[in-house]
Amino acid sequence: MLGEYPIRGRRAAEISASVERAVADGALAPGQLLPPMRELAQRLDVNPNTVAAAYRTLRERGVIETAGRRGSRVRPKPATTAREQIRVDVPPGVRDVSDGNPDTALLPSLAEAFTAAATVADARPVLYGDEPLEPELARRARADLDRDGVPGGPVAVASGSLDAIERVLTAHLRPGDAVAVEDPGWGSMLDLVPALGLRLVPVGVDDDGPLPAGVERALREGARALVVTDRAQNPTGAAVSAARAAELRTVLAAHPDVLLIEDDHGHGIVDLPLHPLAGAVRHWAFVRSVAKAYGPDLRLAVLTGDAVTLDRVRGRQRLGPGWVSRLVQRAVAGLWASGAGDARAVAASYGERRDALIAALAERGVAAHGRSGMNVWIPVPDETGAVARLLHAGWAVAPGARFRLTAPPAIRLTVSRLRPEEIQAVAEVVAGAVGAGPVRSYA
User: Among 411, 335, 312, which Cα is nearest to 367's?
Assistant: First the structure.
């Protein structure tokens, strides 16, 4: 059953670590069946309860899954094998349109904001026990949220969107709970949920956001949380429309105990209005990062939510990192105050490239999606073949497998650094690689 790989250990921690190393090294393949607990206990000469504890730890870490009498097996996408590893190695001379990064030419200069923030820090250093939140950042963040119709609530700061989402999930859920996620969706999110010992429940997406019927089905079947990307959804570019938001709020009203998390990482790079769902349920959180507008290395996101959720998040944060650097918070507040990063110009720049590529593909019989943000999602009949043919033609795109659970095959192409004169060329090679003909919708 396990080939030549021996699971070793006398204690539960040693056994679970042995299995986890084997999965990470590829010695235990995704989907591979593990021995029954009693059988492994006999082989290792340990108590079956020790093996049971090891398997429980592996389930909570998202490494294995158990299906009753069918036994335990390595997850199809174990947490120890991150989706970021499902990528194309870009050889020299190949144009990389796979990485999802913003156009650095559209990022504002940080020098003046950090110089001003450091000057304040020199005069008034932040010490242990000081307030974790920069007042000016909180004031500006709350004012922006109010303008966008996000319900009132306390503000906290996390080290990016994923950090904020993880903190909210762990504030309410326990290992084994189910989380409804977009499919296709953000690869890091699809890694994070099982890494926390939670179960993924896929919900289909179209250009207007999560499909209400899919959300209803997931919640009816017991999902305890729902994660929604409001705009610039990765990888499809979906944006929740006003009509879709109304439908989703109706669905959520029938499930008031579900935890709702909204990710508005596209803030500052999109020109579509926000239609928040926040407040439709008792416990909710709304997350807004600065990575796409000001640069991923800032590692800062603001979040708001109901009082219970924010109190739990801030309390746990105090026991860990304590706070996000007040120096960084002050610099971001300065960027906001100065108007750095023209959201309309940035959105227009990405939109022009995105729309031009989608139109060029349509002229060649290839359907593509990209309502907002910096990515175009292209359904294909053969994902592996399309990626390989494009690489051979000099273009590296992201395999759709990084973003899918049950959704059909596709590829993701990032337009942020695509030059206007390259649009027709890349459309031509994509059409040749995927073949002009009907393919299934990504939803």
Answer: 411
Q: What is the mean pLDDT of each run of 10 residues along the chain (443 residues)?
A: 67 87 82 89 91 86 76 74 62 90 95 97 96 97 97 96 97 92 96 88 97 98 97 97 98 98 95 96 97 95 97 95 97 94 90 96 95 96 91 93 92 94 94 68 59
Please check whether residue 137 is in contact with residue 325, taking contact to mean a CB–CB distance below 8 angstroms.
no
Query: pTM for the whole thing?
Result: 0.83
* Tokens 């109190």 -> residue: 311
What contacts 404, CB < 8 A, 6 or more positions away? 183, 184, 410
Amino acid making up residue 153: G
362: which 2 tokens?
Answer: 């349509």
Contacts of 327 (CB under 8 A, 6+ apart): 114, 117, 118, 121, 126
Neighbours of 29 (CB within 10 A): 14
Query: What is the pLDDT, as a whole number, of residue 82?
Result: 55
End-to-end CA distance of the chain: 37
Amino acid 220: pLDDT: 96
CA distance 137 to 302: 9
169, 228, 230, 250 from 152: Cα distances, Å? 20, 19, 18, 20
Q: How many CA atoms lie within 13 A of 195 on its CB side?
A: 14
pLDDT for the residue 20: 84
Please say whether the beta carbons of 361 and 427 come within 8 A. yes
Amino acid at 439: V
Q: Which two tokens stand for residue 244?
A: 């879709």
Whether 65 and 110 have beta carbons less than 8 Å apart is answered as no
Q: Which residues pair with 200 in a beta bridge?
A: 179
**Contacts of residue 201, Cβ cutoff 8 Å, sequence gap at least 6:** 178, 179, 180, 181, 218, 221, 223
